[in-house]
Amino acid sequence: MDYVSTRNAGLRVSAAKAIATGIAPDGGLFCPTEIPSLTKADLDALLGMDYKARAAFILGKYLTDFTAEELQDFTQKAYADEKFGGPNTAPVVDLKDGKHILELWHGPTCAFKDMALQMLPHLLTASLKKTGETRTACILVATSGDTGKAALEGFADVPGTKIMVYYPVDGVSPMQKLQMTTQKGDNVEVVAIHGNFDDAQSAVKRIFTDKATAEKMDAQGLMFSSANSINWGRLAPQIAYYVSAYCDMVNAGTIQMGDKINICVPTGNFGNILAGYFAKQMGLPVHKFICASNRNNVLTDFFKNQGTYDRNRPFYTTDSPSMDILISSNLERLLFYISGQNDKVVSDLMGQLSRDGRYSLAKELFEKIAEDFDAGYCDDVQTAETIRKLWDEEHYLADTHTAVAVRVYENYRRTTLDKTPTVIASTASPFKFCRAVVEALGGKLERDDVTQLDVLSQMTGMEAPAPLAALAGKQPRFDRVVPKEGILDTIDLLVKL
Question: How far is CA 299 from CA 302, 330, 377, 422, in A?
C-alpha cells in the first residue's frame, strides 16, 4: 500500500517512508491510497485475540511493507503487561445511559498518547532501516500537554533518534509540565514557549518545510521527523483501540456482532476521532461520531455551521488543556477522503486557512461529513459539574477531558433521542489533572500538585498511578522559555545533543 500527500496525490511513498519522514515536503499529511477492508470474518477472528494481537492485525492492513512477525514483535513490546498494568491494555467500563468508557490511559504516562507513542519508536526505527536511512532522526514535537511526555517517554535514549518537545508555558497542567521537565534521557530536550499550542505546531510545520534548515541538518547527518499525529505512524496505532473496544463489547454481551455503536471523543487536533473514522471506513459498524470540544469550540462551529472553519477567535486556556487548540491538523486528512482524494481542493482550503484563517466547504462536501459527524462543547463549569455528577451517581472518577466528552454525549443523547451504545474515549487519568478534579469534587486544594495526588486519593479511596506518584521530589531538568518567534533558533540545542 502506498501513501500520498493530501496536497499532492502524485507524491507516492511507502508506509516506511511516510513514517520516517513524518510530514510531506509540501506540508501535506501522508494518507493511504486506499482504506483496507475489515470483514465480518476478520472481526470474528479478532474476538479471540488479546489487544496486542488485535493491534498487530490492524496495523498489518496498513503497513504492508512490514512483516506480520515484525508487527507482532512491536506490539508485544509496546503494550507489554508491565507497561499497561496487565493484559487488558484498553478496558471498556460500562456506565448508565449507553455510556461505555474506553480507558486509554493505563500506560506509562497516564494518557491516551501512550497507545501510539509506545509503538511509534519501533515503527520509526524500523522505517529508517527499511528506507536505507543512515541519518539520525531529530523528532520535533509540539504538545498541548500529553503528547510531549508520551513522546519523550517513548523515544528517551532510543538509538538513532533525538527529540525536542515544545509546550506552551502557561497552557499545560502543572502535572503535565512536571512530567516533561523531569524527563530522563541523553537525547531529549524540552522547551517552553510564550504562546499556545497552535503557535508551536505552526512553527514546527514551518521548520519541516524549510529547505535551508533541512540542508543544514543533512550536512550534519541529521533529518527531521515527527511524533505528532501528523505522522501516520502516530495515527495508525490508534485505529486498533476502537476495533478492540467493539470486540470487547461483543464478548461482554453488551452488543451483538453487527450492531452499530457511536464513538464520542474529546477532540483538539482531530487525530483521535479520525482514527475512529478510519475504523468505520474499514467496516467497523459505527453510526455516528460525536466530536466533543471545550470552550475552544472551533470544531463544534465547523460541524454546526455547515463546514465553515474559522480560527479567527479568542483562544482560551481551560481545565482541559490538551484540547486547547484552534488549528486541528488532522481535519485535513478527513477533507482529503471526503473530497475523493482531491489534492487540489485540500491544498486550496489549507491555503485559505493559512492566509485568511478560515475556509468554507462546498455544500456537497459538508453533506458527506454531516452523515457521519455530530458535535458539541462545554465550558469549565459544566466540566466540573460532570466530574462531580459521575462520581456522585456512578462512582466513576473522570478527568477533565473525559468529562467534556461525557457532557457532550449526554447533550447529544437528550437532543437526538439516539440511544445507540456509545464508546466514549477516556483520554487521561483523573490524577493527571488532579487539581481540577479535586476542586470539582469540593476538596481542599494544596499548593504542591504532587501533594494534590494524596488529597484526591484520600477523597476517593483510589490509588494514584505510580508514574505520577513517582514525581514527588523530582527536580526539573529543563527550564528554558523562548518567544514563539524564537523556536527555529532552538534547533541548535537538538543538534548538540
Answer: 5, 12, 9, 20
User: Is the CB of residue 14 less than 8 Å from the CB of residue 65?
Assistant: yes
* 259, three cell numbers: 450492531
d(CA 409, CA 374): 10
pLDDT tens-digit readout, 95-111: 999 999 999 999 999 99
**Tens of pLDDT along 157-189?**
999 999 999 999 999 988 999 999 999 999 999
In sequence order, what DSSP letters do the residues of 26-41 get, joined into one string?
TS--EEESSPPP--HH
Is a pLDDT exceeding 80 seen at residue 449? no
* Cα gap 449→60, rounded to integer Å: 42
Cell numbers linked to 107: 500506560
Tell me how far CA of residue 204 lies from CA of 91, 207, 286, 428, in angstroms: 34, 5, 34, 25
Phi, psi for residue 490 in degrees, rounded to 5: -85, -5
In the block, residue with C-alpha cell 511507502? 14
Is 113 among the residues known to form the active site? Answer: yes
Q: How far apart are the first and last CA of the chain?
A: 36
Residue pLDDT, tens place only, 138-150? 999 999 888 999 9
* Predicted TM-score of the model (pTM): 0.95
d(CA 416, CA 374): 10
Using an 8 Å Cβ cutoff, are 240 and 55 in contact?
Answer: yes
> What does the pLDDT average to over 57-72?
98
CB contact at 8 A, 295 and 377: yes
Residue of 195, 464, 416 lying closest to 290 (CA atoms): 416
CA 11 to CA 6: how far, in whole Å?
Answer: 9
CB neighbour burial string for 139-152, b if at least 16 within 10 angstroms, e if fewer: bbbbbbbbbbbbbb
**Cβ-contact 341, 10 below 8 angstroms:** no
Return the HEC string of 93-130. Answer: EECCCCEEEEECCCCCCCECCHHHHCCHHHHHHHHHHH
Indicate which residue of 52, 99, 113, 288 is catalytic: 113
Confidence of residue 248 (pLDDT cuts 50, 70, 90): very high
- The answer to whether residue 445 scores a pLDDT higher than 90 is no
* CATH top-level class of 91-104+252-432: alpha beta
The cell 468529562 sits on which residue?
403
406 CB-near residues (< 8 Å, 6+ apart): 99, 386, 390, 398, 424
For a pLDDT cut of 70, what percent of the chain falls above it?
100
* pLDDT for position 494: 86
